[in-house]
Design brief:
two-stranded antiparallel sheet, 5 helices, 4 strands
C-alpha cells in the first residue's frame, strides 16, 4: 500500500485505518509475530489502541495518514475490514472499489488498476 500511496497521493486521498489487532498475544498469537517481535495484547482502551497503531506505523514505515478505529470497532463492523482490506471511495463518497478480506483477498494490484482507470477518466483529452 505504501507504493500505491507514493504513486497516487497527488490524485487520491489515502487513509490507513488501524482496526483491532488481528494477532493479539491474548487471543490468536502467530509464531511469526513472536519471531519478528510484534507481540501485543488486544487493546481495551482507545489510548492503548492508538499506541499499538503508532508502533505499527513505525514498524511498517508508513508515511500515509493513519487513523484509529474506535474501541468498539465501528469502522471494522461497517466495512468488514478485519484483518485487512482495501477500499476506494470516489469523490461523491461512494465505494468505487471494495477489495475482498485479506490476506488472500488483499490485492493492491486490483486497487491500482482501479486507481489508474479513475485517473484516466479524469484526464482531459
Amino acid at each position: 500500500m505504501q507504493r500505491l500511496y507514493q504513486r497516487y497521493r497527488d490524485q487520491a486521498a489515502f487513509l490507513f485505518v488501524y482496526i483491532e489487532e488481528a494477532h493479539a498475544a491474548d487471543e490468536w498469537q502467530m509464531p511469526v509475530n513472536e519471531r519478528e517481535g510484534v507481540v501485543c495484547k488486544q487493546p481495551t482502551a482507545l489510548a492503548e489502541r492508538q499506541a499499538v497503531a503508532a508502533r505499527c506505523n513505525t514498524a511498517l514505515g508508513l508515511s500515509m495518514p493513519c487513523v484509529v478505529d474506535t474501541i468498539d470497532n465501528t469502522t471494522d463492523e461497517r466495512y468488514a475490514g478485519w484483518p485487512e482490506r482495501i477500499f476506494i471511495v470516489d469523490e461523491q463518497g461512494k465505494i468505487a472499489y471494495a477489495g475482498k478480506s485479506g490476506p488472500w483477498g488483499f490485492k493492491p494490484r486490483e486497487a491500482e488498476a482501479r486507481l489508474k482507470r479513475h485517473a484516466r477518466s479524469r484526464t482531459p483529452p
